[in-house]
Design brief:
- The structure is a single chain.
- By secondary structure, the chain is an alpha/beta fold.
- It has three domains: 3-60, no CATH class; 79-268 and 401-469 and 487-498, Rossmann fold; 278-357, no CATH class.
- Helix content is 43%, strand content 17%.
- It has 20 helices and 14 strands.
- The protein has helices at residues 3-10, 14-27, 31-60, 142-149, 197-201, 206-223, 238-254, 270-274, 280-297, 303-322, 328-342, 346-351, 360-363, 403-414, 429-434, 443-447, 452-461, 480-488, 492-495, 514-529, and strands at 78-85, 90-103, 109-120, 129-133, 152-155, 167-170, 180-184, 193-194, 231-236, 260-264, 369-372, 375-381, 466-472, 499-504.
- Helix 6 (206-223) packs across helix 7 (238-254).
Length: 532
């Protein structure tokens, strides 16, 4: 090869050298050898040089999100067809079990949020659309999905308290009869996952949670062409609080105005739940629920007797607790009345100066038994009779209702076609512990948590906005008195014809009772059909 060709080749890459050599041979008429060498060049480029160039380009450009990790366990969306048999008709519907993605400012995928959508196949574009979530914080939507809203219901045996052999059946009281449903698991619950544990913590807070769920709702609404549908939010416990916060976030950050919220056994004001143990107002607002529970345990429930307890609680009881300690006959009469209403022996009522919030679990159901804050009408054998205060797991939360988790995982796999090797998280205690209430974690910050201002503002700026609050009489965790107090202190002009509270026999999850579930669904149908 001439020296000039040698110099020319020395300044080129390996591929250029081989390509140039092929060209030289072609000029000399050696086409076969030239073609052979060019083929070698192509292979050399593909196997060696191209990956190097790609690596250099990757160093200069943002790296794509790596598929894998926890997200690799989440399958594609599954769409199935079903029919719901109600008392009036057979309702065909389509179910989508899938995920929606949330991205951070860098463009990287931050989380995948699992949802289940049940949509009537013959639905008009203006059919109501309800987004549903539970509370906790840290609870998945399986409770409300299989306990109340969905087309399938989880039965817990003849007495509705056997979680060892639960079974699914058609739900004749499903809200799908009058609204399409989208049930959402917030990040960290169910099958909703963040890209990493650190990413997950960015979702665990009042504001962050509301904004992320508002984004999920906006994405679903746009993706499915439901902008014109009246939109409702429904949530249980913290989920009721969440519903108000998400409604505000939808308005402020997504430009979506909701038609109403349904708050089930809600927490509205944190000061009542986590305030001082000797707060006279909180004690007075809880007392009617304890009275209702005692009536339930004696099979003597009567709404009129509960109303009597409510009047006593907000008059003589409240005034007495707010004043100096009672003495003599006055104290005996008051404490005897509280004892008769709650079943707590008078000596314990007297020892607590009438503040029974800390002693009713251990003292109101008789020796050797404890009651559940989730349903104080329900008692169980005391596993720790030697302790002065209750140490038990809760008979409701830690008992039969745990069955919702495994039941939903089986339902999704067997009937909805969503098959994953990822476990379904019904309750995530880590989420609860990490939760940021108002700039921090812990009791002090959650005491100030409030959704009352959100309710006021939404009622004020959205004339069509309405609120339905539902409680079980014997719920001692979030007693109906707490919500009633908040609603009673809203401006009358905002409330008239737009805010209602409904009470049913049972506790925090009163819908586990067939009769209460049916009554609530009928009331909800009327709420949805009322003019906005």
């Amino acid at each position: 090869m001439p020296w000039r060709d040698q110099v020319e080749l020395s300044s080129l890459s390996e591929v250029d050298c081989i390509t140039l050599l092929g060209a030289k041979l072609a000029k000399r008429g050696d086409n076969v050898r030239a073609t052979h060498i060019n083929n070698i060049a192509a292979v050399f480029f593909a196997l060696l040089v191209a990956p190097l160039w790609a690596q250099e380009a990757g160093d200069r450009q943002p790296k794509p999100t790596v598929s894998g990790g926890i997200f690799s366990l989440i399958p594609p969306d599954s769409v199935t067809e079903h029919s719901l048999k109600t008392d009036h008709e057979a309702l065909p519907y389509t179910t989508t079990a899938g995920t929606l993605e949330l991205f951070g400012q860098s463009g990287a995928r931050a989380a995948k949020v699992f949802y289940t959508a049940h949509v009537a196949r013959s639905a008009a574009i203006n059919r109501p659309l309800t987004f549903v979530f539970n509370g906790g914080p840290g609870a998945a939507s399986a409770y409300l999905h299989l306990g109340l809203f969905g087309p399938r219901i989880l039965e817990f045996g003849r007495h509705q308290d056997d979680g060892t052999r639960p079974f699914l059946s058609d739900n004749p009281d499903s809200w799908l009869a009058f609204t399409d449903l989208v049930l959402i698991d917030p990040v960290g619950t169910g099958w909703s996952r963040a890209a990493s544990n650190e990413d997950g913590k960015t979702f665990y807070g009042v504001r962050q949670d509301a904004e992320s769920l508002a984004k999920v709702i906006a994405l679903y609404t746009q993706k499915n062409g439901r902008v014109s549908s009246p939109k409702y939010l429904a949530g249980e416990s913290y989920g009721g609080f969440r519903a108000a916060k998400v409604a505000s976030a939808l308005k402020d950050t997504q430009g979506i105005l909701v038609s109403g919220v349904v708050m089930i056994s809600p927490m509205i004001e944190g000061r009542f739940l986590w305030g001082a143990d000797d707060d006279p107002l909180a004690a007075a607002l809880q007392l009617p629920s304890l009275a209702a529970a005692y009536l339930e345990r004696r099979n003597a429930f009567d709404p009129k007797l509960v109303n009597d307890a409510e009047r006593f609680a907000m008059t003589d009881y409240l005034v007495s607790l707010a004043g100096p300690p009672l003495k003599g006959t006055s104290s005996d009469e008051l404490y005897a009345r509280v004892s008769a209403l709650t079943g707590i022996p008078q000596q314990y009522v007297s020892g607590a100066r009438g503040f029974v919030g800390d002693i009713y679990q251990k003292q109101s159901a008789g020796a050797g038994r404890v009651v559940s804050p989730y349903d104080a009408g329900h008692s169980a054998v005391d596993a720790y009779p030697e302790t002065a205060t209750s140490q038990n797991d809760d008979p409701i939360l830690d008992g039969f209702t745990r069955g919702y988790g495994a039941a939903f995982a089986s339902y999704a796999r067997d009937e909805l076609g969503f098959r994953t090797d990822m476990t379904y998280i019904l309750l995530n205690e880590d989420v609860n512990h990490e939760w940021k209430w108002s700039g921090g974690r812990g009791d002090e910050s959650r005491v100030t948590a409030s959704a009352a201002t959100d309710i006021r503002d939404l009622l004020s700026v959205i004339p069509q906005f309405r609120v339905m609050v539902a409680h079980g009489y014997s719920d001692a965790l979030t007693p109906y008195g707490f919500s009633k107090y908040v609603l009673d202190h809203l401006p009358p002009a905002l409330v008239a014809g737009r805010v209602e509270i409904k009470l049913y026999r049972g506790g925090h999850m009163f819908y586990t009772s067939t009769a209460a579930r049916k009554a609530f669904s009928e009331d909800a149908r009327a709420f949805y059909s009322a003019p906005g």
